[in-house]
Design brief:
Length: 344
């Protein structure tokens, strides 16, 4: 057999193999290009054929023409099949197309910055043996004020600009201290709880005030609880919050009707050594209100104030987040700005 005939057979086999494995129109185009174009395999064989003797041409010519006819027909057929399969797949997709299907891989949600910080604070409280509790956001005057030693007409009420509901005596809680009362009513001691949640104040908003924000309350009740216990607990808690073992705290006298003595607690600025814009160059940061639970509060919950004592403290989560992330407008936390929210 003359060599070109074996070569034609080889080209045919590789054409068949390529066609068999092709599944897309693009692959078919590539095959057509490789075999049928002017630079293709068949053209190359044609050119080769021209260089051969008359006798060889007579033998190989018909074989090569047969290959070309075969290849053209096979390729055409495969193009048609491919088109049919595409149309069928499209029809099938259109039939079962679900306009309500969510493309949830496009955008992923993330936990709100409040949730992230609350989770972290809760973990710290839990590590200290505290339990997480929640109270209602719609409160009664009793839980938000009266039981906390803030009777009607007490000037301290004016400091809380309250959202009153149209139903008498109902309001949106102005602080998480209301949860203290729900917990104390259970009278199970020793008692150690933290209570995170939203609070509301009917005041004008600006970059550092919002009508809704978030607090976390800590409450501990047992026998012989002292101011030293409060300071030590808060220091341990804040050292964990800011992940700084040498964080210091200091107390300044203050007034909250539900604690006696009442204090405000500052911590040494965890962001600098020599003074920065966050601590306003004072090296201290005001963080929370605190104090020993007022005997009147214990009494209003039916607890013997001669036997039990305790401490409470409350801090704002928004301020904590603003300091940590350098956020300059408290209103951003409630805004629907995805660009802001997805940073966390
Ligand atoms: N409830 C107080 C506030 O919202 C904070 C506080 C809590 C103070 C517990 C003392 C004890 O400002």
């Amino acid at each position: 057999m003359i060599p070109i005939i074996a070569e034609i057979e080889q080209v045919k086999q590789s054409f068949i193999a390529a066609l068999d494995s092709a599944t897309t129109g693009k692959e078919l185009d590539e095959i057509r290009n490789a075999f049928m174009s002017r630079q293709g395999e068949i053209a190359r064989l044609m050119a080769l054929l021209k260089t051969l003797s008359l006798e060889e041409k007579r033998q190989a010519g018909p074989v090569l023409h047969e290959l070309r006819a075969y290849a053209e027909a096979a390729l055409d057929k495969k193009y048609q099949q491919n088109e049919q399969a595409g149309l069928q797949a499209l029809a099938c997709r259109e039939q079962s197309f679900d306009v309500t299907a969510l493309r949830y891989h496009d955008k992923r949600g993330s936990l709100h910055i409040y949730s992230q910080i609350i989770e972290k604070l809760e973990d710290i409280f839990i590590s200290m043996g505290y339990t997480v509790v929640e109270g209602p956001e719609v409160e009664t005057e009793f839980y938000n004020f009266d039981a906390l030693n803030i009777p009607k007409n007490h000037p301290a009420r004016d400091a809380h600009d309250t959202f009153w509901l149209t139903i008498p005596s109902l309001l949106l809680r102005t602080h998480t201290s209301a949860v203290q009362i729900h917990t104390l009513e259970k009278r199970e001691f020793p008692l150690a709880i933290c209570a995170p949640g939203r609070v509301y104040r009917n005041e004008a908003t600006d970059a550092s005030h919002n009508f809704m924000f978030t607090q976390i309350e800590g409450l501990f009740i047992d026998k012989n609880v002292s101011m030293a216990n409060l300071i030590a607990t808060v220091q341990t808690f804040l050292q964990a919050v800011f992940e700084k073992k040498d964080l210091k705290v200091r107390a300044r006298p203050s007034y909250f009707p539900f604690v006696e003595p009442g204090i405000e607690i500052d911590c040494s600025c965890p962001f600098c050594i020599a003074g920065c814009s966050i601590c306003k160059k004072t090296k201290w940061i005001e963080l929370m209100g605190a104090g020993l639970v007022h005997p009147n509060v214990l009494k209003s919950c039916g607890i013997d104030e001669q036997v039990y004592s305790g401490f409470a403290f409350g801090l704002g989560i928004d301020r904590l987040a603003m300091m940590k992330y350098g956020i300059n407008d408290i209103r951003l936390f409630q805004s629907p700005k995805i660009g802001f929210l997805e940073q966390f």
